[in-house]
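Morning. Coffee machine broken again, so started the prediction first thing and wrote up yesterday's gels while waiting. Chain of 331 residues, entered below exactly as on the submission form.
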Amino acid sequence: MTPTTAAASERTPSEGRRRLAAPTVAMLPRIADSLSFLYLDIVRIHQDDTGVCAEVTSERHGTQTVYLPTAALSCVLLGPGTSITARALATLARHGTTVVVTGAGGVRCYAATVPDSLTTTWLERQTRSWADDTSRLAVATAMYEQRFGRGTVPAGTTLAQLRGLEGQRVRAHYQLLARQYKIGRFRRAYDPASWDTQDPVNLALSSANTCLYGIVHAAITALGCSPALGYVHSGNQQAFVYDIADLYKAELTIPLAFSLHASSNPEAAARRSFREGLRLFKLLPRIVADIQHLLDPDTTYEVPDPEEQLVDLWDPIAGTVQAGINHGTDL
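Came back before lunch.
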């Protein structure tokens, strides 16, 4: 028996279990592996000794406690009648979960998260391409081409022309779906002040888009990018969120909204259907891959392993050098 195996045999079973259960940085979930989102309303969310839980009270069942899988949850939507404690919010933030507070009309009011990825690699790429007008136009063009098909945007097309092409295609998409579901003429309308007077398709579309924004926001911040630095949208803290969300609306939220044209509760139906659909589309891995490809189209990247690269040091010549070591010998 070698000294190593002898030492191992002397460990108690409890010590072995403790060593196996000790968490490591590599155990943290990647954003691409996270669940989609959870919508809550008329509940109280708080932190107890076990974890974050939601208390649901009803006349029939009394008070029931449901624990939330915070470590594997990318986005939480807090609807009307929801209260949440500071400790619960802190736990969600530590796990990189986006928290979105919405009103009765699905109006996005607040979103915050802590990225799972601690590297600034993608933020630096985003900032460089956003700050240069030529690069910014190239990314915006790539976004339109991803939506409408490669090679559909002629060389030299201006951003104003791209917006015009987008408007024509989206309008034609609305008309096609309206004919398919036999609902007559449709016009996109979003007016939070007159929410209850809107038709079911508009209600469902706004509700599904709000869910989509939350998921996209979670993916963007988990990569370390800035939600505010948009390439098509501008002047809003969610500009990049709107940019990326637009890549998927024609495929996901718009057809879903039209399919709910006869629903008596289109908002709730849109949330449920959208969540179920995400199991098939695997949207989060797609968002991560699409953002990486848009910011660096020539190379395929994976989310960095946090145990291999926690932080780097900047160098004007080498670009980056290894951190966590003594560089005194370099002097």
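Residues 3 and 259 are 68 Å apart (CA to CA). Going to sketch it on the whiteboard this afternoon.
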